[in-house]
């Protein structure tokens, strides 16, 4: 079953009213913080996390359209973590520089994104409303785009991005590992030894992922914390507790088939998709609970996510139907 769309059903996806209400409530709270301050109000930055194929990119796009339309008439920008992947040549060079780390053989894990570019863009978006209009118009930022169909599905940064202009009310930053935090070495070793629900007792070793590989990615994830510190609110799209990982394979395969149907068949084979998802699973297992738990900055010192108290969890089933919502 493909992702439900407004075009095929004649109505908005059932998740949208939940997301819309959450963002509007958070925007109201955000604006109140700055009322009477005598300064411009920065855009509300909302992190959106969900596993591959869960529909987060599609739902984020629809949410943007709903917020921009009457009666809200908001100015909304969407930045995707996927669009911050390193260019293809840099991804190839990264894999070649770390031939023993199977987690870095292609895009996906922390370490395969352009952290410098992401930091620059998020800070520019945070302060876009501060800039004074120039003779050429309001402040403008170009957001990059990543072509996932290039190089046989390996992907590459597109030559041109998308321009967004001030003033902005909301920035939606979506991605599979948005809000993930690093964990201690001891915790990596503990989780490595555990079975992975739905994927067997020895998934990590069978796929060739070593403790050292996870520790490498864990260290790279520390660079992303500066991004998360800029977030004001959060949305998490989660599979059911009894199927935390296995549905992701089905969802991501459907996503690839949909893309290839639209672009003339360019993309990954089914076997490549399975291997592609394999490489992401350790991210969910080791770092995914950081969305609500934060991370241990030093022994005995836990840093909580800045969005706690401003988070919405949307639980979805096998066919992406809404099972329920909760706040965190």
Summarize the structure.
This protein has 328 residues and is α/β, with parallel strands linked by helices.
Describe this structure in words.
By secondary structure, this protein is of the alpha/beta class. Helices cover 38% and strands 16% of the residues. 38% of the residues are buried. Mean pLDDT is 94; it is low at 1-8. The protein is globular and about 55 Å long.
SSE topology:
Layout: H1 6-9, H2 16-34, E1 44-49, H3 56-68, E2 76-80, H4 88-97, H5 115-126, E3 140-143, E4 146-147, E5 156-157, E6 162-165, E7 170-175, H6 185-193, H7 203-206, H8 211-221, H9 225-228, E8 233-238, H10 246-263, H11 270-287, H12 290-293, E9 295-298, E10 301-303, E11 311-316, E12 322-327
Parallel strand pairs: 1-7, 1-8, 2-7, 8-11
Antiparallel strand pairs: 3-6, 4-5, 9-10, 11-12
Helix pairs in contact: 2-3, 10-11
Counting helices, strands and paired strands, the structural category is alpha/beta
Helix count equals 12
Sheet-strand content, in percent, reads 15-25%
Q: Averaged pLDDT, please? A: 94
Spans of at least 5 consecutive residues whose pLDDT stays below 50 are 1-8
> Which series of helices and strands comes N to C?
HHEHEHHEEEEEHHHHEHHHEEEE
Give the beta-strand count: 12
Instruction: Please state the CA-atom Rg, rounded to the nearest Å.
Output: 20 Å
Helix content: 25-40%
Global outline: globular
Largest sheet: 6 strands, mixed
Distance between the termini: 30 Å
**Can you list the strand order of the major beta sheet?**
2-7-1-8-11-12
List keywords for this structure.
globular, 6-stranded mixed sheet, alpha/beta, 12 strands, 328 residues
